[in-house]
Amino acid sequence: MTTPSSSFPSLRIPAAILAFGIGFAALLLAGPLNDFVKAHHAITVKGYAERHVESDFALWSATITTRGKQITDAAAQMDKSTQAVTDFLAAQGVRVERLRSARSLGRARHQAADTAASR
After folding, report:
1. Which residues of the chain are modeled with pLDDT < 70?
2. Residue 5: per-residue pLDDT
3. Are 67 and 74 in contact (CB under 8 A)?
4. Cα–Cα distances in Å, from 113 out to 46, 100, 102?
5. Helix, strand counts (H, E) of the chain
6. How far is it, in rounded angstroms, from Cα 79 to Cα 14?
């Protein structure tokens, strides 16, 4: 007669292999599963915000054109037009000492060149 304990040794090897496989699968899946759970613990915030800012600096470009039969007439008209624009900007709160024009810059360059040449 066969005792019941003698039939179990044949099941021990497959049971050990199955247990080892389940343990190995658990180890393999534990890392990615843990990462998946941690990823859902993060809070992502996306949004849009605006803030009103008053600028204290601006660069403007403007052209004043005059025509005349004589260059002196055109130059006088240019000075008059430039002064009108300067007066308007000053009335709007722009500091006149901060204004630059190509004509005034040209004069400054010529004066610097004349000073350098006279030395």
Report:
1. 1-9, 103-119
2. 55
3. yes
4. 58, 19, 16
5. 4, 0
6. 105
